Amino acid sequence: MSFDRYEARREASKLQEPVDEARLLAEKLGLSPYPVNYWIVDYDEMNELIAYGGFQHRYPHWRWGMQYDRQQKQGQYGGGKAFEIVNNDNPSHAFLQESNDLADQKAVITHVEAHADFFANNEWFGLFTDARGDDAVDAAAMLERHGRSIREYMSDPDVDRAAVERWIDNVLTLEDTIDQHQPFSASHLVGDGPADGEERDDDLAEKLSELDLSDEVLEEVFDEEWLDAQEGDGETASFPETPEKDVIAFLREHGKQYDAEAGKATEFEPWQRDILEMLRAESYYFAAQKMTKVMNEGWAAYWESMMMGEEAFAGADEFLSYADHQARVLGSPGLNPYKLGKELWEYVENTTNRREVFDKLLRVEGISWRNVADTVDFDAVLEQLEPPTALDSITSDSLDAVAELPDEYVDRNALDRAREREIDVDRYPWKVLTYEGLARRHYSLTKRQNRGFLKRVSQSELERIGRYLFDDAIYDSVEEALADVDHAAGWDRMRGIRESHNDVTFLDEFLTQEFVDENEYFTYEYSQAAGQNRVASTDYEDVKKKLLLQFTNFGKPTIVVQDGNYNNRNELLLAHRYNGVMLDIEQAKRTLERVFDLWGRPVNLLTIVKTVDEHDIEVAKRRNREPDPDEQGLLIRYDGASFEERDIPWEEVEDIAASDIDYDTKPDDWLA
To answer: Where would I find the SpoVR protein-like N-terminal domain in this sequence (predicted)?
Structure first.
């Protein structure tokens, strides 16, 4: 994108100050984002960028046109509006739609700065970056290079363009079958299979029948006893030793293409193997974004709200427009990662701050976890935790009062500049404060919506805090104890979590019963007995399990390579790690057709299916309970021409079945 249009140049000049000031404010708040380049684009360009996943140059493929059309229709008929898109790169690139009003642009800029901080500091994003040995992600260059290489293959007169397009379709079918918990490695070799060019023997009896050998030779040299010794009761040469999660890498190393004319598997063409590896690299690059959707969007929504609302980065004449913007984002129906993420980050902040307060209160002489609720006046505690008036309300007329604040709260150099009118403190009051001053100014427990949070502490939580306090009588009064409270504890803890967690670990650790009750989350599922959806549970463990199923492995079925020489016939065996949610069998078959093209030989899929007898459903309806489904192993085989399905005894599929999750509904239907 460029600034060659007059409107774009004018918009860019108008936004230079908000961009500069948002970066300074983000850093004051403790964020450390990648540098960000901002670009002004029009409506069509924004839709194109969204379709391309945030980048300008990608390989040719029909999926981009489909996504562009969907995005355009959403804007025209669905009431959705694209405010921004930012990519994980160093420097990051953010695209602002020129038709947005100034309040929207400011909201986008603050949102982007928080995303850039998350990109730069979350370890799951580092799995791709660090593995490359270069702090500069340079994803845009990588994706452009891939696009250029694939275009060259498509224009090569010796390569059929349609074959390239079909090959891309095949690989994209498996784009999420990678080991997202491991660093990306371009030289990833898997299994202990044959070296390139070496083929495992297929069924020997079948091979011998194809040879033009006399009966005498067959009887003398290849008798039944010899065949049995070779392929009957001996150990099969299975690989890999343990199930391989990176299916794409396995196929790249051991796959072949099927030659219809020769009727057998042949080696990949160089372009096929090259495209496999390029698309695999892109899957690893985008994996971190899929693994941290709730955390990342919630993080950006939290800091955007802090900057735009609480630090009044949105001017008085822009605030209503901004409030409408945020309400639309947070109020989107369904499982909303912005809303869920923001609420979880606020819960982390509040619980950390609450624990810090009680850590101090339980050290006061005469106060213990057993009597604190009856001994301490929590209204008085909140009053003392309120920020000083001079810190809470900063104007050009109150700078003398600001000067009286403790040094840890005030940036003395900036204060001097404000007094000299070099800083517009009425517009940017945060400039005269330090990180500690801003944490005190925005202390979460004293905000109106959180004022009851301190009192709602459970007895079990108090016991956990107090049980390991060995120096439990170091303060003579509550006032003395509260003077030692670290008001930045919540923000510090949030940054630590931001570094190490992904959505699964984030939800698993911080989604509690208290959070579920306060935010009114629940699960619902389709009732076989009632024939309709119903609320299933408000228990946090149930809510958590259903959420975790949505975010584990990007919410997709987990498929692993179980055996690359299944039944010693050079067939591929994939296994579905069943978690109580069945595969769509017809869709699984369509996927096996694609996998056959990447393996060149018959492919198999092992899974578990559930069936419910109609009689059991009728009995369950009369008794107002859910019928118990029967679970059965299923093997689907595809040989390039037809499918074969075979029931498998339960003892042979127990190792692919989850032990603690058994829901009857599909993930898309779960959460309200």
So the answer is: 12-355, 488-555
